[in-house]
Each structure stands twice: as structure tokens, then as C-alpha cells.
UniProtKB/TrEMBL annotation:
Organism the protein comes from: Paenibacillus oceani
Designated name of the protein: ABC transporter ATP-binding protein
Pfam families, alphabetized: ABC_tran (PF00005)
Keywords: ATP-binding, Nucleotide-binding, Transport
Superkingdom classification of source: Bacteria
Amino acid sequence: MAWLPRFAAKKKKETAPAAASGERPATSAVAVETASAAETAYRDGTAAAGLPVRGEPAANELILSVNHVERSFPVGGQQLHVLKGIDMELRRGQLVMLRGRSGSGKTTLMNMIGGLDQPNKGEIYFMGHPFHQWNDDKRTEVRRKQIGFIFQAYALMPLLSAWENVELSMRMAGIPRSMWKPRVEHCLELVGLGKRMHHRPFELSGGEQQRVAIAKSIAHRPTLLLADEPTAELDSQMGAQIMSVFREIIETEQVTICMTTHDPTILEVADHVYQMVDGKFVTT
């Protein structure tokens, strides 16, 4: 994997005054301390609501398990079986890829993992909680706080800057305002956009827009990231850069990433690849 470019984990902050550079002022120690206290209160409230809370990372911690999951849909008076007894695990700090042709069941499985749909049979446990038994409201709350989504088409607000797009995701997740500034700055620095924070999507390349989407997806500190064909709209060089960003995020944020792909050139970056054919995993 030496061919993959790497972003530096840390970058020096600009020292020019905000009025002169047009950049937002550096985050003060007081702001960081306030954000830390707000984050503690935010997580305490999440726990009180009975939702899974991300604690201190544990090596090889089981994040999600899928046990004998089946999903079918009524089509023309018959049942179309899309998932046929799926078993899989996602563990802390893994990059897992789902590979398969269109119609193989990848998207349906991702919907199950993300709580957007429920199986007809089988069980899905997220952080030890029975995801498959929860109602839509409770699953929605988990998605807001514990799961991040990255879409093939970026899903950015076109009139908002990169900074504002990431900030908006924190607002929607219910993150306290005092946490926004240091976290937005950190996320955009992490994906290599420290000097492009205030550009709008139309001023950014496709690769840069995807990086904003990634920063947006990790801003609320999720445990799990789900990415739908994140390199499909990019050339091979940009795709390699995005995979490098994923690896940097896993190392820095201790997050688990599960993604779908058709691209055989990036498979070697994964910790595990599940090959899907007609709703089942096959061994290649």
C-alpha cells in the first residue's frame, strides 16, 4: 500500500490575524475546555436516553453483528428474496468493503446496517443493542448520533461553504454549539482542506467535495461510517487519495468504515472484503 498518498495527521495553524487573512481565529484553550465540558454533557444525555454511547476505544471491539439476516420484497404477487442468510461482523478500526454487481444486495444490506430498513428474519446488534427490534424513532436517533453516511454524489449544500456544511451536520445531530468550531476545524484539517475551509462546493474539485462530505460525516464523532461507492465519481488518483483519507480517519478517530465498491484497484486497502452474489456472501 506504499503507493497510496498520505495526508499529514497534524498541520500548523496560520498565525496571521483573522482580519488580515479572512480565516476564522485560532481556537483558544478556553473554547476547547468549554467544548470538552459540553461534549461530556451531550454524551451523558445520550446515555440517559438509553442509546448506545461511544466510550473509550477498545482494540478489536465488536461494533456491529449481522446474524442470519434475510430480506425480501413483494413484487408482482411474489416475494423477491434480496438477502439470503447474511452473517458478518464489523469491529473497531476496520475498513470493510462490500463488493458485488448491481442487484447483488449491497445497498439493501447497507440499509440494514444503517437502520434505514429492518430484516424479515435474523438479528442485527449495534454496540450490543438489538437494532432489529427498535422502532424507527429510536433507530433514527442512533443514526443522528452514532452513524455517519457518505454518499456517492457528495450530498453537500451548494450555497454553504465547506465549513458551513460540516457545521450544519453538527447542528442536525444536536451537538452543543460550543463544540462546533474546534471540531469543524479539526475535521477539515484531517481531510486535507485546512486552506479550503471557506470555499463553496462549486469552487472545489470532485475529490475536494468528497473530502468535505467525509469531514461532514465524522463531525459528530460517529462509531460507524457507511459509504456508498465513495470513489465511483473519481479518477483512480483521487480515489486513492480518498482511501488514504479513510485510513487516516480510522487511525485518528478510531472509527469503523463499511463501504460498497465496484473498484478492484482499492480492495487491497481493506481489512476485509465481502463478495456478494445474489444476496449471499461467496468465497473467492
